[in-house]
Design brief:
Length: 563
Amino acid sequence: MNYVGSFADALYEILQPEIDKATIEQLIEKPKIADFGDYAFPCFQLAKIRKQAPPLIAKQISDSITSPLIQKAEAVGGYVNVFLNKQMVTQHVLEAVLSQKQNYGSLSIGENKVVTIDMSSPNIAKPFSMGHLRSTVIGNALALIFQKCGYQTVKINHLGDWGTQFGKLITAYKKWGNEESVKKEPIKELLSLYVKFHDEAEKDHTLEEDGRAWFKKLEDGHDEALSLWRWFRDESLKEFSKIYELLKVDFDSYNGEAFYNDKMGMVVEMLEENGLLVESDQAQVVPLEEQNLPPCLIKKSDGATLYATRDLAAAFYRKNNYQFDQALYVVGNEQSLHFNQLKAVLAKMDFEWSDTLHHIPFGMMLKDGKKMSTRKGKVILLEEVLTESISLAMKNIEAKNPSLTNKEEVSKQVGVGAVIFHDLKNFRMNDIEFSLEDMLRFEGETGPYIQYTNARANSLLRKGNWNETGTISIHFEGKAHWEIISLLRDFSEVISNSMKKFDPSQIAKYAIDLSRAFNQYYGEVRILEENEELQARLALVSAVTIVLQESLRLLGLDAPNEM
Ligand code: ARG
């Protein structure tokens, strides 16, 4: 049921043809204060058309508007404030949630459309950084949200597995490396080989040349080079997949930069044919002056291709292979220039789909106000961060509910959920202060708070012997339930807004609001009291658990039944 739509219909009845329905819908507002009604229609635009005072028009409208859904309409200043028929809305909303269950709120905007989501994309032989964690968590939530809107999603892990650094790594491994240590702690060992290479290269200049030569061999498909590269890649992926398993994130494709090694020639040819390539300092670039951007480097003087060349090849490949409607790139804010250049080059090639590419930037993760970096040799192991969060969650559970049966599983859900929620609750461009203590609090704006609210609601359903089947009369005395109903009513609107803005935080905030509204209700009303309203209250509680669980799922969190 689309309530804004019905209000717009009722307005259109009396306002046509002065103003069309789409405009009416756009103008409708939601008053911040519940006392001003459920929706408001501002009359200022009509006032200009009619050359009448807005309050006068508001009065006329509120006197003549009729709809079974509208209980009352009031003229306040230049606004028509309407109050919905609470009984009717309550009935509609609860019936819809209870019958549709986890499909409640689903949309069909994206039917038959594909969205590719370039996400996570860590670099082989390097630690998985906080930025990659953010990309993984935000990308995963966006995929779930787009799916909820009917889109088909393709989650792509565009691994950083190609480039001159792999020539250096092979050189270093052949000089100083050892199989055993790489097997034991691959990332740590490969990183320290890489660091050693750079230290030694300052003294010995032939090393750089060796590195370049090995990368050349790699590009040409030399056996030993390829098998070392493949081994480094496999070992790194094994490490990364521990994090993906904890986060319960998977991918539809692991085609990283290397995958485009044989697909870049075509890109360079196309650019040449279009006369877009220009030589500059012996390198090949696409000038982007008119777009106010620095030139995009396509080929180095030694013929080597670059990050941008591979992203161009990837964009073509994805367009051809997936026929995407939108292509998202969930990558840190510091790469904005790169993605602007990528889009600008595609636009210069006259690909009209260049503006369906969206860079989804995000801010940094801070520790005590400073950037959390993976500086030379000093590695913050993300896996450790997650396991620490899990063990803190376990401690909380031991203290609060020691008799819980599946503590291991629940502490995983809570510990990991806490980290994910902490990332998603603020608009992604904001920097985040990393604090396990804050993330794991059971009160306030945290994942555990929402999970706990859901578990509490579930326990009420068990105690009240809630039985989903059978028809119930939905009737409430008073207004205590209304805030919950109006939040439940808005679920699909929140989902579509968060999809359009690429903004999972809108769903996180919604889950916080719904949890607060429920906990307030819990404090005010004796939910399990035996009277004629009991079944209606349990229906309300059940609807809350359905929508809370679905909100958590859309963010990538589990919702334990008990905790
Ligand atoms: N591997 C890159 C990095 O860690 C991120 C890749 C993002 N995706 C892309 N298509 N460029 O910085």
